[in-house]
Amino acid sequence: MARAITKQKKIMWTALAWGLGLLIFFPILWTFLTSFKSEVTAISDPPVWFFFDWTTENYTAVLERSNYPLALTNSIIIAVGSTILGIIFAVPAAWAMAFVPGPKTKDVLLWMLSTKMLPAVGVLYPLVLVAKWLGLMDSRILLIVILMLINLPIIVWMLYTYFREIPGEILEAARMDGASLKSEILYVLTPMAVPGIASTILLNIILAWNEAFWTILLTTVNAAPLTKFISSFSAPEGLFYAKLSAASIMAIAPILIMGWFSQKQLVRGLTFGAVK
Questions:
Q1: Which residue ranges form the domains of the chain, and what is each CATH number?
Q2: Which letter does DSSP use for residue 46 in this model?
Q3: Residues paired with residue 38 on neighbouring β-strands, in sequence order
Q4: How many CB atoms lie within 10 A of CB 48?
Q5: What is the pLDDT of residues 127-175, one digit of tens each?
């Protein structure tokens, strides 16, 4: 039987959930408000909340100073490209680990996860030398490959978890019907794992979109994404908080819109195992 919950507890937990949600959302709200302030108002003490002279001059200055469409295009190409490339490599790897496990499968999974503990700066110098030798500095291809390799362990782990929830008997039935390995993965496994693959794709796009270390250090102009676009408003003379906030809002707006339209699919994918 379900445990009875009093009205007071419902109100308390609802208020707690709203309070936690507002606390998490506060930095975005504050950045949004600051983007419509003048530079003087943005650094005023005590801070000004809603009652100030709203202005869009920061957005105008950002658009005039920087090439926002190019940065947005680069971010989309790099995030989507690294995700697609990662999925191409991760699906066969996760399939092998989930349905044809070996004695060292768990060790390999743990080793892949341990690579995320490596400090990025530890491999910066070798990668810069290789990129210069190949002539790939400030190129989208370089960032796509690097971000794919960085996020590949997470993609494999997530897909492995979802694939484990699929009964192996279904794949065996497909083999008995004459399905090849390629057909088994493309036409049997992949459609059944659509929610898991969708949530994995969304998470990887967000991770690639927010990556700042590699994108700032390995790009200048041609392949500079939105993270480089934001960092350009941090000058040696100081921080221009209002313009920096406007650039930040312009950078996160596309990913917020995508997350808004994808939230149902993400929740469905994350709860796939539990529902099943």
A1: 7-59 (no CATH), 67-269 (1.10.3720.10)
A2: S
A3: none
A4: 14
A5: 888 888 888 888 899 999 999 999 999 999 888 888 888 777 777 787 7
